[in-house]
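cache lookup: miss for this entity combination. No prior model stored, computing from scratch. Input as submitted by user K.M.:
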Amino acid sequence: MSRKLNVYLCGEKTGVLFEDDLLQLTFQYDDNASPLSVRLPVRSEIYPHAAAYPFFENLTPEGDIFEILTKDHVSGNNVFSILNRFGGDCAGAVALYEITPDNNGENITEISSKKIAQIIDRLPQDPLLTSIEKPPRLSLAGAQSKFAVYKSGGKYYRSSDVNPTTHIIKITNKRFPDLLENELFCMKLAKAILSNVPEIELLEAEGRPYLEITRYDRYVNNNKFREGGTVQRIHQEDFCQALGIVSNKKYQTGGGAKLKDCYRIINEFSENRLSDIIRLTEWIIFNYLIGNTDAHAKNLSLLHNDSGVKLAPFYDLLSTEVYPEKTIDHEMAMLINGKGKYSSLTPKDFIALFENLEQNATNMMKTIKDRFAGFVPAAEKIRKNMPTPDMPIYKKIIAIIKKRFYVLFG
Ligand SMILES: Nc1ncnc2c1ncn2[C@@H]1O[C@H](COP(=O)(O)OP(=O)(O)O)[C@@H](O)[C@H]1O
Ligand SMILES: [Mg+2]
């Protein structure tokens, strides 16, 4: 039997997602709707599966988490079913409901530190927390175990359909025990050098460490949520959505997105075209310097606002090259001048990349050199301010940074 879900954007109904008897997904905008994606401009004709599916598929979790969810909890078209069950609070301003939620009489429940610890313990086996009482209808992309909460006055609260989350919580990974410190360090370094990077802190609940990352796609109206202010959503879409490709195509080697495609999106759609081209280039250089081979098209997003779209703040920055090649792929997500290994790159490859992107390579090199001038001392300073500055992970990342910095800038 065919099914449908109402699609909301910033709390306003914008259209309907249909699943037909062949499990194909189609999408139709309402009159006077706002666009979900640069790829899906508002129009009266229905968007067929080929156009609608990539946008909605990219809202769901990936990898092992997707497998667990589809195995245990849903049937039919997996994407539709996951969104039906968990699509109340997605990345950006999208929310999907079968029936519009009732805004009245909702209780805001605090989540204690003990509860956070319990959630952290359960999350690896139960990624969307279906075993806890009233699980959140939350769906975030990515392969890491994570959940999200509403935070106010230093306390966490349960999110719900009408009270979206404000912070992402990422937990430790058994395979890479120092992953949280790695992301903490790289994000703080990015914030120091590139700005426009969300706040991130390493905290703990009953001895369980976790990262608390402020969502840049939310803001609290008048900053007084508990006194009547409300959390507002800001729309975002990742570059797989903007390119109309499914999440499996986030790596160039799998036939997916290339850097040239990302520049094309900025060129075509950004309201800050010139500064976003520079920001995108800085993102590439930053990932090179820290050895982040996982800089793929889902780790880059566009923010939508009333006047247009622009490159979102950067997220999910960490060094993958600190881990041995047998445990994590050292092949770059998107190639530079046809090369797939950071270790094989020379300044000439970056110049060739800029020329290929029709940039003035000399000017771009100068811009980058100025931007990253204080990079190595900044890395040392940030390491000293880490909760455990002598952890080997920081020294390993800084060793990569120094080596790469020398290759690129001499
Ligand atoms: N600070 C943030 N604010 C808003 N959305 C975010 C933020 N960080 C990540 N996201 C969204 O959540 C998704 C998953 O986060 P990410 O850090 O990439 O997790 P993973 O490590 O599992 O890939 C991202 O693809 C992005 O859409
Ligand atoms: Mg990610």
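stored under new cache key. Residues 224-228 have pLDDT under 50 and may be disordered.
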